[in-house]
Write a structure and sequence with these properties.
The complex is a heterodimer of chains A (117) and B (113). Chain A is an all-beta fold. Chain A is 0% helix and 49% strand. In chain A, the strands form two sheets. In chain A, strands 2, 4, 5, 6, 9, 10 and 11 form a seven-stranded mixed sheet that branches. In chain B, strands 2, 5, 6, 10, 11 and 12 form a six-stranded mixed sheet that branches. A four-stranded antiparallel sheet of chain B has the order 3-9-8-7, with no helix packed on it. The chains are: A mainly beta (117), B mainly beta (113). Chain A binds chain B through residues 31, 33, 35, 41-45, 48, 50, 55-56, 58, 91, 98-103, 105-111, and chain B through 32, 34, 36, 42-46, 49, 51, 90, 92, 94-106.
Chain lengths: 117, 113
C-alpha cells in the first residue's frame, strides 16, 4: 500500500541553523501539506501546496519557513534559522485531490522529530 | 472560526470494557470529520471519516463514530477495548474549499490489563 515517507526520523540542530525536512508524498497525489505537533500539544496546520505554489498557510508559517517541490517526488520544508520553539514533530501529508472535498482525505507520514538545542 | 474540542485529556479503561471518546466541533456548515490514532513515536493513522450520508460510521480496528449535528459532536466508540488500543486519539475537522485540517488536543487512552 502506498504511503507517505519522511526523512530523517529525528533531526537535532543548533539554534540558528537551517534545517530541511524531507517528504515523499504518495506518487499520484497533487496536494501536499505540512503540520507540526509541539510535544504534548495538538497537531497544527502549517501550509498546503498545490501546482508548485502555496495554496494556504497559517500564521505559524512565517518568513523563516519555506516549502519546495524540487523534483517530481520530494516535498521539503525548510526552516531558515531555527529557534528553540521550533522543536516539534513535523508531519507531511498528501491528498489526491483537495482534501475535504467529496470525501478526500489527507494521508500522513510518520513524522520528523526536530530538536533545536 | 472553526474549532475542535476533545474534553477528555486522559481516559483509562479496563481491557474488554467499552470506550467512548468525545469530540465537539464548531463550524457553521456541515464539516468533514475524522478520527486519527497515534501510537507512541508513530504517525497519524486514519480510523474513520464522515463526509455525508449515514451518521454512524464504521472504521478500522472495530471503531465506530456517530455524527450528531444537533450536538455538534462526533464521538468515537468501541464496544470492547484491547490492550493494543492504548494510544492517543485525535479528532479533526476539514471544511469544503479549505486545505487544512483542524485538530483537537487529543485524548490519551490507557488500557488496564
Amino acid at each position: 500500500e502506498p504511503e507517505v515517507t519522511q526523512t530523517p526520523s529525528h533531526q537535532v540542530t543548533q539554534m540558528g541553523q537551517e534545517v530541511i525536512l524531507r517528504c515523499v508524498p504518495i506518487s499520484n497525489h497533487l496536494y501536499f501539506y505540512w503540520y507540526r505537533q509541539i510535544l504534548g500539544q495538538k497537531v497544527e496546520f502549517l501550509v498546503s501546496f498545490y501546482n508548485n505554489e502555496i495554496s494556504e498557510k497559517s500564521e505559524i508559517f512565517d518568513d523563516q519557513f519555506s516549502v519546495e517541490r524540487p523534483d517530481g517526488s520530494n516535498f521539503t520544508l525548510k526552516i531558515r534559522s531555527t529557534k528553540l520553539e521550533d522543536s516539534a514533530m513535523y508531519f507531511c501529508a498528501s491528498s489526491p485531490r483537495l482534501a475535504g472535498n467529496f470525501g478526500n482525505e489527507q494521508f500522513f507520514g510518520p513524522g520528523t522529530r526536530l530538536t533545536v538545542l | 472560526a472553526q474549532s475542535v474540542t476533545q474534553p477528555d485529556i486522559h481516559i483509562t479503561v479496563s481491557e474488554g470494557a467499552s470506550l467512548e471518546l468525545r469530540c465537539n466541533y464548531s463550524y457553521g456548515a456541515t464539516p468533514y470529520l475524522f478520527w486519527y490514532v497515534q501510537s507512541p513515536g508513530q504517525g497519524l493513522q486514519l480510523l474513520l471519516k464522515y463526509f455525508s450520508g449515514d451518521t454512524l460510521v464504521q472504521g478500522i480496528k472495530g471503531f465506530e463514530a456517530e455524527f450528531k449535528r444537533s450536538q455538534s459532536s462526533f464521538n468515537l466508540r468501541k464496544p470492547s477495548v484491547h490492550w493494543s488500543d492504548a494510544a492517543e486519539y485525535f479528532c479533526a475537522v476539514g471544511t469544503s474549499g479549505t486545505y487544512k485540517y483542524i485538530f483537537g488536543t487529543g485524548t490519551r487512552l490507557k488500557v488496564l490489563a
